[in-house]
Every structure is written in C-alpha cells, then in structure tokens.
Design a protein that fits this description.
Elements (H helix, E strand, L loop, with lengths): L3 H20 L5 H18 L10 H20 L7 H30 L6 H30 L15
Helix pairs in contact: 2-3, 3-4, 4-5
Length: 164
C-alpha cells in the first residue's frame, strides 16, 4: 500500500511526465527540416527584388526586415538535440546577415544618387561590407557542414533549401 508521501511523489511524477509530454520537447528531424526550409523559401521569395541589377535602398531594407524575421522565426524553433549547436550558429549567422543588410541600404542609396560623390568613408564602408559578406559566407558554409555532418541535408540559407 502506498503511503501518503509516496502517493504525492507518484502523483508529482505522473504530473511531470504529463507536462513534459504535453510540451512536446524538441522537434523531430523531419519537422525541423520542413520548418527551416519554409523559412528559407519565404526569405528567398522576399529577396527576389535584389536579383535585379538595380536594387533600391527600399529593396534592401525589405530584405533586411525579411532576414531579421527569419532569424527570429528560426530562434523560435526547438531543434533536435543533435543539431542544437548548429542551429544556434545558423540563427547567429542569419542575424548578422540582417545587420549587414542594414549597413548596405544607406550605402546603396548614396551610391544611386551619384556614385562619383561617394565619400571616402562610404567607399571604405562598402569595402568593409564586402569583406563582412565574405565572412558570413564562410560562416554559413561552416554551419551547412555542421548540419551535413549530423545527417541533415539542405539546411542553411543559400543552400537551395527552397528548391528541394
């Protein structure tokens, strides 16, 4: 026969198990990949305006907003434990990409007005932005490899996830 103390312990254990089961915990691999691909697909669609040879500062600002939203949406996911670190790295890279896009918008606006009148400061900032984009590309490649090493394919922005 269960004593009151044991009954309380048992009841608490059952309650905790029910709460844990109800919370769902981390996403499954398939659900996670589907969510990331959906976010990537939305961003790719939003970035189509940048494919023109003449994106406006407004186009870049919209891209920044879309990428920022993607970072927030990714951050809201509960990835499988096997890729928690890679997921955190992905969120960080996407956030940094958004910030970098925020630096590009004003520079594009200035360049469109009259490229010959760009200040030395703007030229140096454009060079720095170009270097920073190269760094982001390297980091994204590293993140994609982390996912691939964990058995996840086509994860990471710029990996054609929207097309697969």
């Amino acid at each position: 026969m269960l004593r009151p103390r044991h009954m309380i312990t048992f009841a608490l254990a059952v309650l905790c198990a029910a709460l844990v089961a109800g919370c769902g915990g981390a996403m499954s691999k398939g659900d996670y990949q589907k969510e990331v691909r959906g976010i990537d697909k939305r961003v790719e669609k939003d970035l189509d305006a940048l494919d023109s040879n003449d994106p406006s500062a407004s186009d870049i600002n919209k891209a920044e907003s879309s990428i920022d939203k993607a970072a927030n949406d990714l951050d809201d996911l509960d990835p499988p434990s096997k890729v928690k670190d890679a997921h955190k790295d992905l969120v960080d890279v996407v956030r940094d990409t958004s910030k970098l896009m925020g630096r590009v918008g004003p520079l594009i606006g200035n360049a469109k007005k009259d490229p010959s009148k760009l200040s030395d400061k703007d030229v140096k900032e454009l060079q720095k932005v170009s270097e920073d984009f190269a760094g982001i590309e390297k980091r994204m490649t590293k993140v994609q490899k982390e996912f691939e090493d964990a058995g996840y394919t086509n994860i990471g922005f710029g990996s054609n996830t929207a097309k697969k």
